[in-house]
Amino acid sequence: MNRKDKLLTIGQFASMHGINKKTLMWYDQIGLFQPAFIHPENGYRYYSYLQSPVLETILLLRELDVSLGEIQDFMKERSAGRLKLLLEEKIAALDLQLAHLQGVRATLCTHHQNMDTLLTMDLSEISVIKKEARCLVTVDIDNNTSFEQEVELITAETEKYHLGRLHKASYGSMISVSSLQSGSFEDYTRLFIEIPFLSYRAGLHMAPGGEYLRAFHKGDFSLMPARYVEILDYAKKHGLGLHGFSYEMGINENVVDRVEDYIVQIEIPVYGIE
Predict the structure, then answer these.
(1) What is the chain's Cα-based Rg?
(2) Helix or strand or coil: residue 44?
(3) Within 13 Å of residue 74, how many CA atoms lie on the same side as its CB?
(4) CA–CA distance from 269 to each of 9, 126, 131 (Å)?
């Protein structure tokens, strides 16, 4: 007799598949998965090894959050074609979940990096760092754009990219280097949204990869021009050319309450480094 034809007790069969035997009893009661043999005298359930692939399919579908009702419908007319369609639906759903989790992980990594920066940084320091190129969603603003209008613009973009909640992206403002060099320190022209894993396409802003000057400003925003003067002086002293835009982003909003404790990270692309 082939060993695979031998019957297994409900406990043995359940253990083999890593489930509780009560699960098998429940599946039997609802007609989803029945034993190969029920002893007529004691009512004990016995299962065949050959039933394993069917049970594993059911368990896989349950792990994919397919309802018992859907599984019962599938089991009544089980076929390769129906299983293929069902699995394709679940694979597509898993892909969406994975993309969501990757985005959440990227956001957590950004927050973690910001907290690490807060714990180790010297606010007075101006340094050169390297950054990867990144795609940014931007909205145009000018000196006449009110705060309420900025909120509306950002909200519209978060809805456009199906972000759902603000924590799924990083936000900041942009001012051109030419404005800084001409002393127009209030001439902010764009707000940006950095969305994890966003691929470049027409209409998006590409922040270049390479070396950046990085500095920080804490507290009163009216003193930001003075900080930029220090940054410009540093660049001149070290023979560094600034280009493009300055990217400003708050890095400690989630751990402070007072505006005077608010820290802005400033990053500006540079060239001229040997």
Answers:
(1) 30
(2) coil
(3) 22
(4) 70, 13, 9
Place of tokens 């998006």: 204
**What's the CA gap between 219 and 56, in Å, rounded?**
60
Token digits of residue 155: 């909200």
Which two structure tokens, joined as six digits, stand for 235?
Answer: 């660049």
Token readout for 272 is 């001229």
Residue-wise pLDDT for 29-82, tens only, equals 999 999 999 999 999 999 999 999 999 999 999 998 889 999 999 888 888 898
- Which two three-digit tokens encode residue 115? 């907290």
What residues contact 179, with CB distance under 8 A and at least 6 apart? 185, 187, 189
Look at phi and psi of residue 197 and say left if phi exceeds 0, alpha if psi is from -120 to 50, else beta: left
Q: What is the rounded distance in angstroms from the CA atom of residue 176 to the CA atom of residue 185?
A: 9
Write out the two tokens for 186: 């209030």
Three-class SS state of 28: helix
